[in-house]
Specification:
Order of helices and strands: HHHHHHHHEHEEHEHEHEHEEHEHEHE
CATH superfamily of the largest domain: Vaccinia Virus protein VP39
Number of strands: 11
Oligomer: single chain
Structural class: alpha/beta
CATH architecture of the largest domain: 3-Layer(aba) Sandwich
Low-confidence stretches: none
Number of domains: 3
Distance between the termini: 42 Å
Strand content: 15-25%
Shape: globular
Mean pLDDT: 95
CATH topology of the largest domain: Rossmann fold
Largest sheet: 7 strands, mixed
Radius of gyration: 22 Å
Strand order of the largest sheet: 7-6-5-8-9-11-10
Length: about 400
């Protein structure tokens, strides 16, 4: 497969204040704090996000623009490290040279897999799977290098899209509605979400537009289970869609995530939710008793690189084998709860066919009582959202 425009993945100037670039080039607080955090991230790159968040909280010597510049630089190094160099000081200075407008000198391999590895800072396995999964892997990685917009979901249990749009707009919040999802609103990053009275009263939740599009397509019924609920972004969306009617169950193996979900559900005014920690005792439902079971499965997170650039370092052969085995196992356990004629919905925030279409094909091969009703994909280079997959299956007997 020939790659189209691989130079799109090279680092480019970000329009930063030249004074910031100069400070980062000289000995001092910006360079010192930035390089210290980079070395800490290099020691444990999969923890880049919490390291950076903690580092920014503790970097009281930096003013807001300097903190933003350091954070942007460190995330850029996660995306472009193979191009900029392995040595932390060299990579830092190479990034600053790009910001001053100096051209990047890079000799690209001829093999498409190796080109993606080099320019995307990803494993050979990830590059190979991308080539097999998306029409334009260069466009996907380029879009994944962009900053994701901030999107909120209107909670219809508390308000309406029109009312919240008006309320926040009159407060001077930069805000506009999605053209594809009725409950999605895009807000400017200067909006202090957690200080907002509307957030505190449960009128909205932060949720990517793509995640909302997935949650909107999950079938409903009188008894619905979110089998891998986590902290409950899509669970709360289902509750809003159900208008507190019927029964909604949220399962997960993580106690802390379910505690957070319970807090959010209380704030959102959800009344029909039962939370259950898997492994803590019998599931509070009998087999073949549910209209819908939704499996928002653990996955590589390949569709969320805009928000979590460090995940590109985790996706290798061992990780994908672990994920696909877990995904199939969860599907097989979750499907026992669905009644004949009911639905099983399977979703991931991955763009890789290996975690999506191939998992569904493996499940259907061993489950003749199930039929595929349809599948949908969303991706940053095509839809401007995070990458998602959703398959809807019906139990025929």
């Amino acid at each position: 497969m020939a790659l189209v425009g691989p130079e799109r993945l090279l680092p480019t100037p970000g329009g930063y204040d030249p004074r910031l670039i100069q400070r980062a080039s000289e000995e001092g607080r910006v360079r010192g704090i930035g390089l210290a955090l980079l070395q800490e991230i290099d020691a444990d790159p999969l923890k880049a996000d919490p390291i950076l968040r903690r580092g920014m909280r503790e970097a009281r010597a930096l003013h807001s623009q300097e903190r933003r510049f350091v954070a942007d630089t460190l995330y850029a190094l996660l995306r472009h490290r193979r191009v900029l160099g392995a040595d932390p000081v060299h990579a830092w200075d190479a990034w600053l040279a790009v910001q001053r407008g100096e051209p990047v000198s890079a000799t690209l391999p001829e093999n498409p897999v190796e080109v993606l590895q080099f320019l995307g800072n990803i494993s050979r396995t990830f590059a190979t799977e991308l080539l097999a999964s998306v029409a334009d892997p260069v466009a996907f990685l380029a879009a994944s290098n962009d900053r994701a917009p901030l999107c909120i979901r209107v909670n219809r249990l508390k308000t309406t899209t029109e009312r919240l749009l008006s309320t926040l707009g009159t407060q001077g919040v930069e805000i506009h509605p999605s053209t594809r999802c009725d409950d999605a609103l895009f807000v400017g990053r200067n909006f202090n979400l957690v200080a907002s009275p509307e957030w505190k009263s449960g009128q909205f939740e932060v949720q990517d537009e793509g995640s909302q599009l997935v949650g909107r397509e999950v079938p409903l019924g009188s008894t619905v289970v979110d089998y891998c609920a986590g902290a409950g972004g899509k669970t709360l969306q289902l509750a809003s869609r159900m208008e507190n009617a019927g029964r909604l169950f949220a399962f997960d193996v993580r106690q802390r995530a379910l505690e957070e979900l319970s807090e959010r559900a209380h704030r959102a005014g959800v009344k029909n939710l039962t939370v259950h920690l898997l492994g803590s005792g019998a599931i509070p439902l009998s087999k073949s008793s549910c209209d819908v079971v939704f499996v928002d499965a653990p996955c590589s997170g390949s569709g969320t690189l805009r928000r979590h650039p460090e995940l590109r370092l985790r996706i290798d052969e061992d990780h994908l084998q672990e994920m696909t085995g877990l995904q199939l196992n969860i599907l097989k356990r979750a499907q026992t709860l669905v009644k004949p004629g009911g639905h099983l919905a399977y979703a991931t925030c991955s763009v890789l066919k290996r975690e999506n279409e191939h998992v569904i094909a493996s499940f259907l091969e061993d489950s003749p009582e199930w039929s595929l009703e349809g599948a949908q994909r969303w991706s940053p280079e095509v839809d401007g959202t995070d990458g998602f997959f959703l398959a809807k299956l019906r139990k025929t007997s």
